Amino acid sequence: MAFLDRRNRGNIPLCLHCREPAVQTTPDRHEFFMRRALAEARAAAEEGEVPVGAVIIHEGRIIAAAHNMVERLKDPTAHAEILAITQAAAALRDWRLEGTVLYVTKEPCPMCAGAVVLARIPLVVWGADDPLRGGALSRFAILQSETLNHRCRIVRGILKDESLALLQGFFRRLRRGTAIPEEPRNPPD
Ligand SMILES: [Zn+2]
Asked: From 89, 92, 95, 97, which residue has the greatest number of CB atoms within 10 Å?
């Protein structure tokens, strides 16, 4: 039981799946961190990237924040979640992101959901579902697969309208031929 004792200083309830201390969260807290993820998504939109943003918190503090950079890096794996996981692993000096929460504006794709499982992230919070290609729950339930060695707790729908508006605006501009926002972020007075 040393394994449990080491992680249970302070008698925090343990997650049934990963034996991690259950992260204490509230809806207000989810919104607070999701707003940071949305700010990352807006930065992506301004750079002509699909607007998805992610942050990872550990012990109540942000240790990673990233947005989609596929076009800039010319890297199909440069999704917000992957970049944030890499940052978080560097910050914790551990590939196991125990005790963390990932906030992401849209349901992770199959690649990112796979990375979340490998990183052992105990709780994932997202905004908009992706019914077409969602890899976490909607199309492929990778975060809760019984055949994988880690399952995540999930909270969905936090600030989903803001996330959807960003995505829909981006693809509308893309259809018109410009993926760059038509109005400056901070218009002059
Ligand atoms: Zn992804």
From this structure: 97
